[in-house]
Design goal:
binds adenosine-5'-triphosphate, 25 strands, 27% strand, 32% helix, globular
């Protein structure tokens, strides 16, 4: 059984993954701290995205932009003026609620992109009331989501800065420097992972809607005439597409034909992330693509497809990917007055690159879905087993001496220190062996190594596999290599 969001939050707190920020002071809504296990897991997830989509992708390079940048960036991107959500105050209890998501929760209708006036009409027509006290909602208004701050000692209209609400715009702001210094040629992508801040009206559902979170985003630039020159496109690949409350499994080709994707590059990037989640353990039946209809599309986007996950609170956005055309570079060019055109050798002319795809991934939402689908309450074992892909498990291996006496603890410590040179390993000599296995199961540690009396004689140890509980004997001299091959090369446990 999949846990509820509250059960998962309680589990994460109990195991030292994630807890409310500054809980001793009562926490702060929309902000969380990561504990020892959580920081390892989150770093591994970010590393996995980066490895698969930047390091191992010949078309993509990375940057690390500033969190507070020149405010003109947000003028060019239109965030300064338009980045807001629609909010309404309850006339009885004064609670402020984000109205579009409330309408979606109550009626199932997606009202993304609707005007303030239209939303106001829907609230009345559908008799939407305060989710807390059922009171009548006042007329909705727009609420700005940018966190403001003051830069430097002076306080005037020029000193106002913003915490970035997304990582993407820093990529456009750095585009010229990256292009001039990294020998990239169209088509190419620039990626970034890092913090983003949004003053969300109603943060909720644990890590789903936060005020401080992280994103992994890529801007993929092509020549506007070469949107379909994608060597990695696989039209025969299958994906799930939303169909009412469920999904249908169809080919990528069929979706391209129906213009769900704007181009082959767009299709490639959406499917690459869909497959990434499956590779890392998310069940295919919990993933589907949700295209934005024409009236939901932002004015600059040619097409946008979300990847949705079946959360315990419904199908919700896990990932978004829009074809943004020349809007962003065009805007940054206009406001900065710097040309952002590049020379495309293949056609021997200058072009303003086209954003064929903008994969946009929230790290915390990725964490959530990876945790949901790894979580297995094993009634037989009497404990939770976190069946995480070993690549992202916080700990790779735990070393457990059967008993502490007769030199076993010392020998086990030696083995542990040797493993530590290569892996995030853990040494645990306390409690029954069953209890120690259970502790590691709950943290998702793929392999436990038990050092017993025979180990002292023949230099072999027992290696236990987390998911099957099968055990094999391995020679201590081969331990490092074998564990490495199982985790990083996917070799069989035998
Ligand atoms: P929503 O409609 O849920 O507010 P959005 O469409 O505004 O999301 P984008 O601006 O497209 O989201 O952000 C890209 C990705 O960043 C999302 O798919 C999600 O994974 C993540 N994300 C956005 N807002 C938040 C948030 N408040 N908390 C956690 N993750 C977020």
């Amino acid at each position: 059984m999949t846990p509820s969001i509250d059960e998962l939050a309680a589990f994460c707190k109990k195991k030292g993954f994630v807890f409310k920020t500054a809980e001793i002071f009562g926490g702060l809504q929309g902000f969380y701290d990561y504990g020892p296990m959580g920081v390892e897991l989150k770093n591994n997830v970010k590393k996995a995205f980066w490895n698969d989509f930047v390091t191992k992708n010949e078309f993509v390079v990375g940057i690390d932009g500033a969190i507070i940048t020149n405010p003109q960036v947000w003028v060019a991107s239109e965030h300064a003026e338009k980045f807001s959500d629609i909010m309404a105050k309850c006339s009885s209890c004064g609670f402020n609620v984000r109205v579009d998501t409330l309408i979606e929760d109550v009626t199932g209708k997606n009202v993304e992109g609707e005007s303030l006036k239209e939303i106001g009409k829907i609230v009345k027509k559908e008799k939407i009331v305060c989710p807390k006290c059922k009171g009548i909602l006042e007329e909705p208004n727009e609420f700005k989501l940018m966190f403001e701050t003051n830069i430097g000692p002076e306080k005037n209209e020029k000193s106002t800065g913003y915490l970035r609400p997304e990582t993407a715009q820093l990529i456009f702001a750095a585009f010229k420097n990256v292009y001039q210094t990294s020998r990239v040629k169209l088509p190419f992508g620039i990626a970034q992972v890092g913090k983003a801040f949004r003053n969300e009206i109603s943060p909720r559902n644990f890590l789903f809607r936060l005020r401080e979170f992280e994103q992994f985003e890529i801007e993929f630039f092509t020549n506007p005439e070469k949107l379909n020159d994608c060597p990695m496109y696989d039209g025969k690949a299958k994906v799930n597409i939303a169909d009412k409350n469920s999904f249908k499994t169809v080919t990528v080709d069929s979706l391209l034909k129906k213009k769900v994707f704007a181009s082959k590059w767009h299709a490639y990037w959406v499917t690459a992330f869909f497959n990434w989640f499956v590779k890392y353990g998310v069940k295919e039946k919990n993933l589907r693509l949700q295209p934005h209809s024409k009236d939901q599309l932002a004015h600059y986007a040619n097409a946008c497809v979300d990847i949705e996950y079946k959360f315990p609170f419904g199908w919700k956005e896990l990932h978004g990917d829009a074809d943004r055309g020349q809007f962003d570079l065009g805007q940054h060019q206009k406001v900065s007055k710097e040309s952002l055109e590049v020379f495309d050798e293949s056609v021997s002319k200058k072009v303003l690159p086209f954003v064929a795809a903008e994969p946009s991934q929230g790290i915390e939402r990725a964490l959530l879905v990876l945790l949901f689908d790894a979580y297995f309450d094993d009634k037989k074992r009497g404990n939770v087993v976190l069946k995480l892909n070993p690549l992202i498990s916080p700990l790779k291996v735990a070393v457990l001496p059967l008993v502490k006496k007769d030199g076993l603890a010392e020998y086990a410590k030696e083995i542990f220190q040797n493993l530590q040179k290569r892996f995030n390993a853990f040494y645990d000599a306390g409690g029954s062996i069953g209890r120690r296995y259970a502790r590691q199961d709950e943290l998702g540690t793929p392999y436990c190594i038990t050092v017993d009396y025979d180990s002292m004689k023949d230099k072999t140890v027992t290696v236990r596999d987390r998911d099957s509980t099968k055990q094999i004997r391995i020679n201590v001299d081969e331990l490092n290599t074998k564990i490495w091959e199982m985790i990083y090369l996917g070799k069989k446990f035998e």
